[in-house]
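ingest -> fold -> write
write: protein_1
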Amino acid sequence: MVVRLFIIMLVACCTLSAIGEGIPEGPQIRIIPLASPLKSEDRCGQWMHPEYTAEDILEMIEGLKPQVLEPYITGAQNPKAKVPVRKGNPKMTVKEFLNASLDAGAPGCIIIPKLNLTWISWGKEKYFWEAAENNYTLPLKRPIRITNLDNWNGFIEKHGEKRAREVLERLKDIGYEQLGVNMAGGYKEGFGHLSFANFLINKETWELRLSTLEKMKRDPHINQYYLYIDYPGQMDEFMELPVDKQADVFTKVIRQGQKKEKFTFVYPVLFDKWDANKQLTSKTGKYKGASMYEVIQNEINPGHKKSAATIGKLHLFILAGQSNMKHMLPFDTFTPAVTEAFRGDDIVVVRNAVGGCPIRRWYKDWKPATEGFEYNDSRTGHMYEGMQRKIAEALGDRKPDTVTLVWMQGERDAADGQHGVYAESLKGLIRQLSTDLNRHDINFVIGRLSDTRVGEPGWDAVREIQVETATLYKRGAWVDTDDLNGPDNDVHYTDDGYRKLGERFAEKAIGLMQKQ
C-alpha cells in the first residue's frame, strides 16, 4: 500500500510539473467552436459553426499544428454533450472532441479558455464561478490550468481595483497556475497575479499598438505578450480590407513586429463572422488565390502541402451610398453569396459609403435643382474620388472581367428638395464610372428607398426615379427595402434587414451577371 501511494504521488507531481511549465512557446491560433453558453438551455458552450463538423475543425488544427488553442472554448462545457460529426462517422462527445483537438495540435498543445468578466457585470457572477470551476475540472489529457479573462479594462472601470484583485485571487485559489487578460482598452494593473496579456492592433492604420505593449513589458509580472485582431469591431473592419491587404498585414506588419518586439500573434482562424477559409486573396496577386487559412498555414506551418490556385475571372463589386449601405456588412451575406455563385473566380468587393451624403458627392457634374441652394462646391465628387482610389488599390494593375455597381442612396437628396435633378445625376454617375473604367457593360443594382416617408413629394419622386432608371437601364435591377426597416418604419434597417439587403443585392447582381 505504501509503495502504491508513493507511485501515485510521484505521478501526480510529474503531471503538475508538466502543467506548471506555463504557456508553451510556439504558434497560437484562435478558433472558438464551443461558446455562447448563456444562450443554451444547459448553460454550456454550444456548437458555433453549423457549416463545419468536428472533423473539419480538427483538420484545420492538424494543418496548422499550433502549440496553443486560445481562446478555444468559452464558458462551462458539458463533457458528455455531442458535437456534430460527418455523416457516417461515429458519434463524438465534447470531451472526445477537446482531447482530439489537443492531439491535432503540436506535441504538448494546450487549450486556454475564455472567462468573460462581463458576466459578473451582468449579474451572472454565480455562473462565472461555475464556468471557472468547470473548465478547471474538465477531464482532459492535459487539464486546463491557464485561463484568459475578457473585458479586463471594463471590469476595473466598473467595479474597481479591489474587486478585480479579489477575482484574480479567487481564481488562483481554485488552482489556476497562470492568468491572463485582454487589455483591449490599454494597459491596466494586474496586481502581481497576471503572467500574460493581450494587446490589439491599431484598426486605423493596421500597425502595431506599441504603447500598450511597452507598458505591459514594464510590468515585472507579465512575461508573455499576445497580439489580437479582436472582435467584433476590429475584425469587422479588418474584413473590409481587400484580402491581399489582410494577408500583407499578417506577412509584413505582424511578422516583422514579432521578430523585433518579441510578442506572439494569435492567428485568427474561425470565430464570430471571421472564417479564414472563406477570405480569398486575388488569383493574379502575389498570394495566387490562397485563402487566409493558407496564408496563416504558410506562416506557422510552411511544410504543409498547399492546394494549387487556379486563375479564373475577376469580378469587381462596388458598393456605394450613404448610411444604409454603410450599415450593411458585405461579409455577412453579400460577399459569401457572390463568392459561392462564382466559385473559382476572383471576387473583389469595394465599399464606399458615408451617412448623410447626397449624390453630388459622387457625381462630379452635379448642378442644383433650384437657384440659391447652398452647398460646398469643393466637396462635389470627393466621395467618388475616394471610391476610385479604393478601386485602384484593390485591383492594382489587373483589369476586371465584370463590374457591378450596387447603389443604396437618395435619402439626403429627397430631404434636401434636390429630387428634380436626381434622375440625371444617377444616370450621369453611371456614365462617369463607365468612362473612367473604360467600359460600357457595367451592371447596376439599386436599393429603392424604403417606405418610411412615403407621401412626401421628394421621397416619392426619388423612389420612382430609382425604379425607372433600373428598369430602363439594360444592365440594371432594383431591390425592394420596404420590409427591412422594422415595426417602427425607421429610415434605417434592423440587423436582420441589413442581412436581407445584402442577400437581395447579391441575388440581383448574380442574376445580371449570369444573363451576360
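write: protein_2
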Amino acid sequence: MHQPVTQGVCRTPQAGAAESLPPWAPARQARPRGGAITAIGFLLLALLVGGSLRPGSGRAQEAAPDHAGQSSPALQSGVSGGGAPTGTAVAAPPARASRFSPERLFEDVATLADDRMEGRGIGTAGLERAAAYIAAQFAAAGLTPAGDNGAYFQSFRVPTGVRLLAGNHLRVNGRELRLEDDFVPLNFAANGAAGGGLVFAGFGITAPEIGYDDYAGIDVAGKIVMVLRREPRERDQQSPFRDPRAYRYSEVRYKLHNARQHGAAGVLVVDLPDPPAPAKPSAAPRATAGKPPQPGDGAARRPLRFDERTGGASAGILAVYLHHEVATRLLRDAGASLEERKASIDATLQPASLEAPGVSVELVVALEKVFGSVRNVVGWLPGQDATPRREVVVIGAHYDHLGYGDGNSLAASPGRAVHNGADDNASGVAGVLALARSFAARRGTEAGAPRSLLFAAFAAEELGVLGSTYFVKHPPGPLAPPQGIGDVAAMLNLDMIGRLRQRTLHVQGVDSAAGFRSLAQEIAAPLGLQLKFLGEGYGPSDHTPFYAAKVPVLFFFTGPHSDYHKPSDDATKINAAGMAEVVELVARVAERLAASPRPQYVAAKTPPARRAAGSGGGYGPRFGIVPDFSEFEGGVLISGVGPGTPADSIGLRTGDVITRFAGVPVYNLYDFTYVLRSKRAGDEVEVTFRRDGGTFTKRVTLERRR
C-alpha cells in the first residue's frame, strides 16, 4: 500500500469530458458481472497494530447472497431477521422512516459506479469525472469550496503508472530473448543489471510452519533464481497452503522478497498457464486428465504484456515474468524437466530445486514510474454558533476504486475489466452527498448545526489512504494554518455502507472518544439497527490518519461480501433502503457531535477491544506501529505507536523510520509485513530505526495478538 518516492516524470491524468456526464443526468445501471474467490494477498494496517482486517482481504471471505430471491435488490430493505449479534442488540422496530431517499442514494451510487467512470481508477479520466460530479453536488447543496484556490479540489501527487524504458534485456548464454514475448519485467521490480548462474527454486517458498522450503540445500547468493507462480497443489482443498496463515506464499511479491533474503541477484518468475478446471462429474474423462499443462497447449502460448498500472513499492530486486515455454527449454538444456519437477513437488510436497549447470543469465531492468495529480473533493458548511464554529466535524468517504483492476483486485482471472466499486465505495460517497444536502438545507434554521461540518471525498484510498493522509498533513479550507488538524473535533468515515443485511451495522472506533459507545447505542435503539462494535480507532480505511493525529473517529461499514474488489461489485447489488437507514444513523450521530461539547480523544487501549464478528484478524505476532502511507522510500515511516505495545516499550515514536527488523533489511511496508508474519509471539527481535539523523538498534519481545 505504501508508495515510495522514485525518480519519474509527472503526468496529469487525462482530463475527462465531465460535461458528457452531467450531474443531473441519471446514469445507466451498471451491468452485473460474475466473480469468484481468489487468493490474492493484500497488506492491511491491522497486521501491524493488532486490530481488525477489512473483511474480504487475503483469501476472500464468502458471505450469504444479498437479498436472495428478491426481485428488486436495489431498493429492498435488507430485513431478513436472525438473532442479535454480539455487540449492541437492538430489536425494536424503527421509530420513524429515514429522512433520506433510497432512490436518490441509488442514483448517486449508480452514477459513480457506471462503466463511464472507468472504475474510478487512479490515472483514469473516469476518476476525474467522478471528482467533477461530486464537486457539482457539493455546489448544488450550497457548500463553500474548501480546496485549493477557492475551488472544491485539493490536489496532490501520486504514482499513476509505470512505463518500460529502452534497454530491458534478458540474455541466456549470450542469446537475447524477446521482450514482451519471451519475458517482461514486473512493474514493481527494481532497476539495474545483474548476471550469474541459474538456479531453479521450485515455487520460491520458505514456509517453516508447514515444513516446506524450496531453498533448502541450495546456494543462490549472487545468482538468478527461477521460481514458479502460485503454490503447490493449488487445486487441492486440503493443501497446507490453503491455511489462511499461508496465503501470502502464492504472492509474487512474497517470492521476490524471499529470493532477495536468500541473496539472489534477480528472479525469473515462470508465467505458468492457468491450471485446467476440474472436470464436472458428468463429463467424460479427458485423455490428458491428471497431467500438467504441456508446452504447446492452447493456454501455454499466452502473450506476455507489460502491466503499466501502478505497481506499488519496489521489491528491491530485479525481476521478470518468463514464458513457460522458455523456462521449459532452459531446464531441458540443463538436463531437467520443468513439468516433472513441478509434478514431483505437487505429489510429495518436497522441494525439487537444482542448479542449472552451464546456464548463464544476464538481466537488465529499466522502468520509470509515472506520476500525476489526483484530487480530494472538499466542501465546508460553517457552523451557526460563534463559540464552536471554528471546530469542525469531518464527514468523509473515499471515491476512488480499482479502475480496470490492479494488484489489489480479487478477480479470478487476470485481464482488463471495469471494477465499478458500487459498495466500495460509491455507497459511502453517496452517503456523504446525502448528508451534505440535508445539513446544508437546514442551515439558518433552528435545526442548523452549531459546529462547522467539512464534507470530504478522498482519492487514492486504495493505494493506501493517501488522500486522507494528505488531508491530515495539509488541512484544507477552514482547517488551514494557523487552525490545523487540531481543530477537527471528530471524523466520521463511511466505507462500504451499501449491503445492509439482517439490520446489522459494524461501527469501529467507539472507544476512540469518551462516550462514543453509549452515543451509538442510544441513537441506534429507536432505529431498530443492530450494531457490532470494534473499539479501536485504527483500521484499513480513511479514518486511520485522523486517529493517528489524535482525532476521535467513527467508521461505519455494513459488512463483508464475496464481491469485494471484484468486477461484480455493481450497483444492482446495492440495498438502497438499507443505505438510507445507515445514513439516518450517521446523520443523528453528526447532529449530536455538531451540537455537543467537544468529544475527548482516548488513546488506543491494550489489549485491544474484541473484534467485531466476521471482521477477520491479523496473522503473526503483535508489534504495534501505524505506518505512514504517503510516498516514502528507505524503510517504514511511523505515524503512530500503540500504547503498551512492544513498539511502545522500546520508545518508538511518530517520525521514526524502521530500516531493519529481525536482521532483515526493510525497504518498504511489504518487507516489514512479510518479516513480521514470519515471527511468533515470544520471539525477541532487533529493531533498527532512524531518528533525527541518528541510527539506533533495540531489542524487543513480540506479543501474541489478542
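write: annotation protein_2
The first strand starts at residue 8 and ends at 10.
The longest helix spans residues 422-442.
pipeline exit 0
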